[in-house]
Design a protein that fits this description.
The protein has about 160 residues and is mainly α. It has one domain. The protein has 7 helices and 2 strands, in the order ααααααββα. It has a two-stranded antiparallel sheet with strand order 1-2. The chain starts with 5 loop residues before the first helix and ends with a helix.
Length: about 160
């Protein structure tokens, strides 16, 4: 005869729910989060004082500044990054992007990249001749988003903090 313990049943349901949430997170998480180099690259990008011109950034993104469509894509990317920077500052009031956890900055950069698959994804053939989109080189191609986010965040802080 088995004995039913409501507390053990509750614990089992809770553990099952936790496992489901964790599995869902890892299934949806970007595989590159498991590498240490991501945080190092993010930290390096945020902490260095490098300055890139618009022309250099467009070249890194493989965009040609003489092409009107490329200029529109670049302007759209900057607009998304600016809106994201503003949202982050308004909701956190952190003075620099350095104060954010590196994994959060990585995640935001990946989310911005998802809005521009033509810049950050390439088709990869699966079996049977099907194609799917995949990251070019994981985060190494997306450090430029982190750079742009750092620049725009700094501008947003300057503008909104001076309004106080």
């Amino acid at each position: 005869m088995s004995y039913f313990d409501p507390f053990e049943a509750k614990l089992e349901r809770r553990n099952h729910a936790t496992i489901q949430v964790t599995a869902k997170f890892f299934n949806n998480a970007i595989p590159a989060f498991n590498t240490i180099s991501l945080s190092k690259l993010t930290k390096f990008t945020i902490q260095t004082q490098i300055t890139l011109s618009q022309h250099q950034i467009m070249h890194i993104l493989n965009l040609d500044s003489s092409e009107p469509l490329h200029n529109e894509v670049y302007a759209s990317l900057i607009n998304v990054v600016r809106k994201t920077a503003r949202y982050l500052y308004v909701n956190t009031k952190l003075s620099t992007l350095r104060e954010f956890p590196m994994t959060n900055v990585e995640f935001v950069s990946f989310e911005i990249a998802r809005k521009f698959p033509e810049l950050f994804y390439v088709p990869v053939e699966k079996s049977g001749g099907e194609f799917r989109l995949s990251y070019k080189c994981r985060f190494t191609e997306m450090w430029i988003i982190t750079y742009l986010l750092k620049q725009e965040y700094s501008k947003v802080v300057d503008i909104l903090y001076s309004d106080l």
